[in-house]
Write a structure and sequence with these properties.
The protein has helices at 20-25, 102-107, 165-177; strands at 12-19, 27-34, 40-47, 56-59, 75-82, 88-90, 93-100, 109-114, 119-124, 133-136, 151-157. The chain is mainly beta and 188 residues long. It folds into two domains: 12-82, Urease metallochaperone UreE, N-terminal domain (HSP40/DNAj peptide-binding domain, Sandwich), CATH 2.60.260; 88-162, HSP40/DNAj peptide-binding domain (Sandwich). The protein is 13% helix and 37% strand. The protein is elongated. The strands form four sheets. The protein has a four-stranded mixed β-sheet. It has a three-stranded mixed β-sheet with strand order 1-5-4. A hairpin with a 2-residue loop joins strand 6 (88-90) and strand 7. The chain is built from three helices and eleven strands.
Amino acid sequence: MYRKVGTKGENIETEININLQEAFYGMEKMISLRTPEGKIKNITIAIPKGIRNGEKIRLIGQGKASQNGGKNGDLLIKINIEDSKTFKLKECDLYTDLLLTPWEAALGTRATVSSIDDETKIYIPQGIQSGERIKIPGKGYQDGNGTRGDLIAEIKIVVPKQLSKQEKEIFEKLNEISNFNPRRQEKL
């Protein structure tokens, strides 16, 4: 006896933006989709902890219906992870800025750096320059295998806009006694 086999409905592809915290910790998120009939359909999706940027979540049977008795298509949701004000994500590493005063950079110091889920104290060597980077292993984003990438702190030396009278005197004295001039470095 001949039996007609139904064909599967078409898959639907969409994408959503989530923030770095949502991706790091995982969450449930409600999304609204317009059906082919023009109705709005709300779907709750579970975003797994540590999902990768660009990864797709497949919801089986949530795509277009089959026209001849086959299975519904699937819904594929591409995840776009947005950088935060503090962190930029590159693969499994997180990049952040570490602001230092000129004297901290010149003398070296211990500084606290915030990672996505805690804080870490690090040693800043004396003479560090703006733009140099310090790598803090294991404090980045998850890599999907249970380990984490690195946190990369880029040094930004910040000069005070307003000086007290005493600070101004110290900088003027330093200007008198110092032979350092970055514009007189050896030319290439």
